[in-house]
């Protein structure tokens, strides 16, 4: 059974870069039917998709964050990572990584989630 | 960009009652691209329904999804205590993009 675990600093200073890593265990990161993604949730608010990556390295991003986001994958470590530059207090959120079903029988959904990690942006 | 609007914002019901949650898309969407999630406080979201009407693995049959075009519904036939949570609908668009509704909170009356 696939499990995901986020890791990274819980506190980032304004204007700096937020960096998180998601480790995949219990399954393969190599699949044409699955992508890997990041989603965030500000305190008391809803869910926002940040971006998605395939094991091949092909990535897509939320247009509202695209200029500040980079998602990368390290298949040898079974990890994918998020970098968000020039953070402000508005980037304070719980950050989740997830496995995305992409196109299998034309279904699209996020079927496995990490537990989430809280990142606060503060000086 | 497709916008998903969920209603009501909060649903106050008693255990044993039926819950009907709505998700309306700003334009017609492909049903296979529509999913529902449950989120309890302090927990990650959990996939309930994919393809508008297919229950995910391990999801009880009191949860059902329906709809097409712009109007989709999540129904919980008889609420049990662990069903009180926030529910989100989500759509995949071809940009690609993944969009969530703002959520419906189901609370104990």
What kind of sheet is the major sheet of chain B? 7 strands, mixed
- Regarding quaternary structure, what we see is heterodimer
Q: Name the overall outline of chain A.
A: globular
Q: Give the count of helical stretches of chain A.
A: 0
Helical amount among residues of chain B, as a percent range?
Answer: under 10%
- Mean pLDDT of chain B equals 97
**Which structural category do the helix and sheet elements of chain B fall into?**
mainly beta
Query: What is the terminal-to-terminal distance of chain A?
Result: 39 Å
Low-confidence stretches of chain B: none
The beta-strand count of chain A equals 11
- What percent of residues of chain B are in strands? over 45%
Order of helices and strands of chain B: EEEEEEEEEE
Provide a quick synopsis of the model.
The complex is a heterodimer of chains A (123) and B (109). Chain A has strands at residues 3-7, 11-12, 18-25, 34-41, 48-53, 59-61, 69-74, 79-84, 93-104, 107-113, 117-121. By secondary structure, chain A is mainly β.
Question: How would you describe this structure to a colleague?
Answer:
Chain A is an all-beta fold and 123 residues long. Chain A is built from no helices and 11 strands. Helix content of chain A is 0%, strand content 55%. In chain A, the strands form 2 sheets. In chain A, strands 2, 4, 5, 6, 9, 10 and 11 form a 7-stranded mixed sheet that branches. Chain A is globular, with a radius of gyration of 14 Å. By secondary structure, chain B is mostly beta strands. Chain B is 0% helix and 58% strand. Chain B has no helices and 10 strands. In chain B, the strands form 2 sheets. In chain B, strands 2, 4, 5, 6, 8, 9 and 10 form a 7-stranded mixed sheet that branches. In chain B, strand 5 and strand 6 form a beta hairpin. Chain B is globular. Chain B starts with a strand and ends with a strand. The A-B interface holds A 37, 39, 46-49, 52, 60, 62-63, 96, 100-102, 105-111, 113-116 and B 30, 32-33, 35, 37, 43-47, 50-51, 54, 56, 88, 90, 92, 95-103.
């Amino acid at each position: 059974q696939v499990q995901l675990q986020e890791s990274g600093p819980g506190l980032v200073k304004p204007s700096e870069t937020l960096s998180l890593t998601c480790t995949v265990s219990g399954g393969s990161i190599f699949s044409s039917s699955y992508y890997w993604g990041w989603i965030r949730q500000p305190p008391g608010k809803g869910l926002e998709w940040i971006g998605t990556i395939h094991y091949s390295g092909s990535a897509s991003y939320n247009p509202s964050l695209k200029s500040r986001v980079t998602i990368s994958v390290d298949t040898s470590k079974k990890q994918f990572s998020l970098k968000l530059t020039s953070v402000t207090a508005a980037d304070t959120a719980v950050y989740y990584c997830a496995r995305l079903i992409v196109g299998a029988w034309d279904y699209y959904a996020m079927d496995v989630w990490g537990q989430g990690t809280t990142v606060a942006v503060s000086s | 960009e497709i916008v998903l609007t969920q209603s009501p914002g909060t649903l106050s019901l008693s255990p044993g009652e039926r819950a009907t949650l709505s998700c309306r898309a700003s334009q017609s969407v492909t049903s296979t691209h529509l999913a529902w999630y449950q989120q309890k406080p302090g927990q990650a979201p959990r996939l309930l329904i994919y393809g508008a009407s297919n229950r995910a693995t391990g999801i009880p049959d009191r949860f059902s999804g329906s709809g097409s075009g712009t109007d989709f519904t999540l129904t919980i036939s008889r609420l049990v205590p662990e069903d009180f949570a926030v529910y989100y609908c989500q759509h995949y668009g071809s940009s690609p993009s993944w969009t969530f509704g703002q959520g419906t909170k189901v609370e104990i009356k």
